[in-house]
């Protein structure tokens, strides 16, 4: 069941990030064409590209957490094996979850609320700036969901290892 949830979540986030990336590429290509070939630069696509870059970067990095491809310093992890390595992975996931909750979700919601109250609009599109910054808590939530799935996977692996041990291996 957990694998099905992860597979659906991976597919949804992966397709979303891919669509954002395609939209970003289309905007940038159109910007280049309109500026250098048509000699009439589009201010709208420039702004859209900047906002898509933010959305792409943050949701893409959240997706990478789920794929275990995020930036990591693995000094200890490469030296450990079995239950100890899985336990370290759980600890790392808990630290990432804490950062995600405190900085991205909580901090992002405060940022979103503050920007919403100002009523500030984007210069050329006229969209509320809060639409742009809502990606921070959304990405934090995606990271948190992946952390929970990763922790559950590690706990399952630990239980599988412990159940496969013989009584003499457990005592020794």
UniProtKB/TrEMBL annotation:
The keyword Membrane applies. It is a multi-pass membrane protein. The chain crosses the membrane at residues 12-33, 48-65, 86-110, 130-149. One of its GO terms (molecular function) is transmembrane transporter activity. It is found in: Cell inner membrane. The keyword Cell membrane applies. It holds the Pfam family DctQ. Part of the tripartite ATP-independent periplasmic (TRAP) transport system. This is TRAP transporter small permease protein. It comes from Vibrio celticus.
């Amino acid at each position: 069941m957990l694998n099905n949830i992860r597979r659906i979540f991976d597919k949804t986030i992966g397709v979303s990030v891919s669509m954002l990336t395609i939209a970003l590429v289309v905007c940038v290509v159109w910007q280049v064409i309109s500026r250098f070939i048509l000699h009439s630069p589009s201010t709208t696509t420039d702004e859209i590209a900047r906002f898509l870059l933010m959305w792409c970067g943050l949701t893409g990095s959240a997706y990478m957490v789920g794929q275990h491809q995020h930036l990591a310093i693995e000094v200890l992890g490469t030296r450990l094996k079995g239950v100890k390595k899985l336990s370290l992975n759980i600890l790392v996931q808990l630290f990432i979850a804490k950062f995600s909750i405190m900085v991205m979700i909580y901090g992002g919601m405060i940022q979103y609320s503050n920007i919403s109250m100002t009523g500030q609009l984007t210069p050329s599109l006229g969209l509320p700036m809060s639409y742009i910054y809502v990606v921070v808590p959304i990405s934090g939530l995606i990271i948190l969901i992946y952390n929970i799935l990763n922790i559950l996977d590690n706990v399952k692996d630990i239980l599988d290892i412990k159940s496969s041990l013989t009584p003499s291996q457990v005592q020794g």
